[in-house]
Amino acid sequence: MNFDIRKIYDENAIIYLPAIYAFMTFIFIDCVFIILHIISVQYFSHGLPSLSLFFSNHKFQIDVEGGYAEFFQYMKWAFVSIAFLYMSYFRKSYLYLLWSFLFLYLFCDDIIGMHEHAGKLLSEHINFDPWFELKIQDVGELFFSLILGFLFFIGFVWGYRKAEYHFKNVTIDMFLLVGVLGFFGVFIDTLHMIAHFAWKINLIFTIGEDGGEMFIGSFMVAYIFFVTYSPKSIDQSCLALQALKYFLKRKI
User: Fold this and answer.
1) Exposed, middle or buried by CB within 10 Å (0-12, 13-18, 19+), for 14?
2) Whole-prediction pTM value?
3) Which regions of the chain are under pLDDT 50?
């Protein structure tokens, strides 16, 4: 007897399958990296000899620059950027290039630390004592991120007013996802820098910050699969509204 997983879904739900498969695959890989991070931190904190052969490399940690998990995150940003570039060509609309450029920035920022270099440059012109034990460079990085975010926001508002429904719905969904990404990448990161905790609490913050960014990145990749395989569905309403309708089980 052949088992077909599509039979457990109704006809409308099948359009979500590619996104679900992508999400489960990427989340599984993210969880593997988080587990490896925990084991690696245990090794460096306690020097467990049984782990020295495999986990003596810091690159197994998710918060290490150039680590294996960060490289996986590079791939996500590159994929999303290229997908929006393709979407711009396929739908004959340059407005999708705004999203492509945003994720291209995230890709470049992760590789060369653009906001860190800009923050260092801005910190040389900031003359005040930071709050909450933040460093001057931390304030510069935050200031740079706010400026760049505001410029992208102006671009999206302008594009939203001129766009067709597909771009509007995609933009609403992506704004929600980027907002959650910003919560982990900016708010949790800033809180992590302010506070000084023991290594166990620090581990929780690291997983919350970097792990949260990894999960949101995976969800964004899955969302791109959804938009690609169900363009008519996203033409009707944004995925956030569709999900709300599904969970409430009534029309809005």
Assistant:
1) middle
2) 0.78
3) 1-11, 50, 53, 252
